[in-house]
Amino acid sequence: MTPQWMGANKPKETPMSTHKYLCMYRGAPSQDKPSPAQMQEMFAAFNEWKKKFEATIIDMGSKLKSSGKVVTASGVTDGPFAEAKEIVAGFMILGADDYEGAVAVVKAMPGMQMPGACVEIREMASF
Amino acid sequence: MRGNPGDGLLLTDSSVPSGPAGRAAGAQDSSGPSALVEHFFRREYGRLVAILTRQVGVRHVDLVEDAVQTALMSALTAWVATGAPANADAWLYRVARNYLMGALRQDAGRLRILEAAAGELAGAADNPAFPGIDDEVGDETLRMLFICCDEAIPRDSRLVLALKTLCGFSTTEIALRLFTSEANVLKRLGRARDRLRAVSPDFDSLPLQALQPRLASVHVVLYLLFNEGYLSAHADRTVRREMCDEAIRLTTVLTEHPVGATPETFALLALMHFHGARLAGRLDGMGGLVLLEEQDRSLWDQDQVRLGAEWLQKAASGETFSRFHAEAGIAAEHAFAPSFAQTRWEEIAELYAMLDRIAPSPLNVMNRAVAIAEWQGPEAGLALLKAVAPPPWLLGYYLWDAVLGDLHRRAGHKKDARRHIERALASVPTDAERALLRRRLASLELSPSPFTRAPAPAPTSPAPASRVARGRRDR
After folding, report:
1. CB-CB: which of B23, B73, B77 is closest to A44?
2. DSSP B377-390
């Protein structure tokens, strides 16, 4: 099934970006409880950001639930097995010409002003 | 209850010109999938808390609020990616309800309660249909309002609880609006919650009509809510308007149900509309002070004045004459006066006298003195105030001294004027009012022989001669 965002946000056949970047949100989700009014502001800010960079955002990705499984040769355990601040809490995929372009999009993301916000950006190998 | 010291000559406002009205999601683009109406999250918060509290019982209101908060956060995340669904309210209801059920189940001690509630919930479990925007939802909101207005909860806590559960404000936002600390808000909220946790399950099965004895308390809380917006010294105009709108919204819901459709409620709503109509005119766009006298009356919202008049007419249908009738009558006099000079001060003075008989307060006498001073001159106003033995709290209240100072100034009693104005300056809460008082103080020095005149012989004209003299003051 085609995600709803694709119709609205995916650029139509515009392969102007040559590289794909995986952006991973790190750290436990914030314990802050924004008020409903703040949520509405955040929603507006996110939508503005999305609109501005719609040509760059290939996949808005998703948040990841906090529990998971880790599969190794020796078996399956409950994971993820990282420090709380290193846990991947979500991801998205950007298309950009270089790291600079990807970084600009992430830096402009509304959530980045939050204390402790951390996003790791890795170029996806295309071979 | 706090008086309404705002309709005399010191009707003041401090405000800053606000830019475009509050930035709401989707306000710029109301057609896109991401569009949400203004205050959507806040309104949904109140609505869902009311609906779910009705389903699981008042004593679980903490869990309900947590569940609704969590659901809104989930919505934020999900909808950023996909846009808000068309049935956003039903989406939220389903998610909030699932969180709530999870929370209730998790708490083993609450298992039995869950079972007790199972009957009611069973029907909705498979098909969690959203109750929809029908009368029922209005009822749930009203019920929540009556729950907040429990006489066993201190009045200040009732207001805070209503702001939290019904209006969806956070404790920080409430603190900002009530000019108090967040710790204080939390304390008040804690008292209210302690009481709610102790509410017997039997209470939940009572029909709304059975809560009618709380109606007077509901009126008080709605009145406070409105006044917190209207009389607020808050600099942000949208913040003030928001509080007034919330009060009007909830009072309107109250008029629509037999439990609240009384002449008092109608009069209260009339009062809010008359005041609300003048809100825009009270702002001078430069952060300065706008006296009633100096307001541009063309800015007053005539549609809202009409609404006020309609509700006041409905309020007059019975035998009742409540304090809200008196206050709405006063507000109506101001709203319908073609100008400050042509205000029917004798009517206003009489209405303040009636108000004082219903709800005695030296503030009513003070406001009456202000009206009488406009009608018969400053000495007549001062004579009335001399008969008052002000209680200690009033002596520390800047407006009392400000009024006395101005009446003395206009009567030519420079020494008394200075004494009172200086005392008012010591505790005046806003910069704008401080500026006004300083202006008045300065005018005492600038005019060694202040303009004085004999009190007008009780005029029958709607434009008393005193107005001519008043034109010279301040500027």
Report:
1. B23
2. -HHHHHHHHHT---
